[in-house]
Write the structure tokens for this entry.
Amino acid sequence: MDEIEKQLTEFEEYEEQFNPLQTSRAARRQRPRKKKDKRNGRPAPTLTDIHQMGDSGSSWVPSYAAALDPLHHERRWVIDSVAPFYRDNLISDVTRLVKGGKEANVYVCTANTAVGLDFAAAKLYRPRMLRHLKNDAIYKAGRQLRDETGKQIKGRRVKLALRKKTNFGKQVDIMWWINNEYSVQKKLHDAGADVPEPIAHAGNAILMEFIGGRYGPAPTLNEINLEPDEAGALFRRVMDNVALMLDLHHVHGDLSAYNILYWEGAITLIDFPQMVDARHNPHAFELLKRDITRVCDYFGRFGVTADPVDLTLDLWRPYMGRDW
């Protein structure tokens, strides 16, 4: 946890100082002066520090990072985040950014032969991701904190840090979201769900199967217009996945046409950090209903008729009657 905390804290400092959205001279004048690091009294890193640390810490620089300005804050973040995958011979390069978001960026990687794939996707979480998660208390309700090995995190220090939102507490919180996505995605894939195969997990990064082709990623469903016959088949496939997730005690929590990929006539569900355990989260039913409603609304545009409330109850009633 200490090394992860150090890496995330450093990038957070870089991101704060060198936000690429702040390009005007007036904006640059408003940037904060160098601050002392509260943990050890070091001054916050300068542009020169970032350049030196980014290149001296690793002899390998992927082509995407090499194309960036040496002083760009993203350069070192990409290098450090994906370096464990390179060292483990899982990837040989990072070639381009395919998705940029408030919580995470997704990059295309050239996979090594041993992986069995031509390409992989590296999802890199931003240190400030928690600022952008709306109503995250809904997803945290009833959660069990676990570390990267899956061991449950207990203790008064952790609970106090989370409550007071200390630096350590923020790191625990971030790691919970990332660990949750990786562990759930692996569980779903092993059970036969239509999700990208997770390959590895290191710090703030998840390496997984890339859905798409040599010339670009698969589009999301919201970008696709479907024929009625195809829409009906895909709707049933999505609902089969929703049912399978519930069989495994999980509710996606943020399912919509925006996080379902479409490629060569098939769907792939993505983005699982907010997935909740239906056995422990008191909001699970409402989240399930919202997921199904969003799916029904999208497919309704292409002639699929379904009642989201009835579908939700059909799945929920037998689930609640189980002996866990």
